[in-house]
Amino acid sequence: MSRTLPRLLTRAELAKRTGVSERTVDRLRLAGKLPCVRVGRAVRFDPVEVDAALKDQRGEVA
């Protein structure tokens, strides 16, 4: 069974998608409020995990 992984977003892509600055993305990541994946030295964000984390922070049911 083949399973494709979601495309991981860069910090700039996530900032644009959520309407916040890249610095805010960094602050949330470093505070542990945004899940991320390290690929070598790069930091990437799984959009499915980020959406779930943001809904959780707003108190929404996923």
Task: Provide a descriptive summary of the structure in words.
The protein is mainly α. Helices cover 47% and strands 10% of the residues. It contains three helices and two strands; from the N terminus they run H-H-E-E-H. It has helices at residues 11-18, 22-30, 47-58; strands at 37-39, 42-44. It has a two-stranded antiparallel ribbon with strand order 1-2. Strand 1 (37-39) and strand 2 (42-44) form a beta hairpin. It is globular, with a radius of gyration of 12 Å. The termini are far apart.
What fraction of the residues are assigned to beta strands by DSSP?
5-15%
Q: List the uncertain runs.
A: none
Proportion in helices = 40-55%
The outline comes out as: globular
Distance between the termini: 27 Å
Number of helices: 3
Given helix and strand content, the structural type is mainly alpha
pLDDT averaged residue by residue: 90
Which value, in Å, is the CA radius of gyration?
A: 12 Å
What series of H and E elements makes up the topology?
A: HHEEH
The main sheet orders its strands as 1-2
Number of strands: 2
Largest sheet: 2 strands, antiparallel
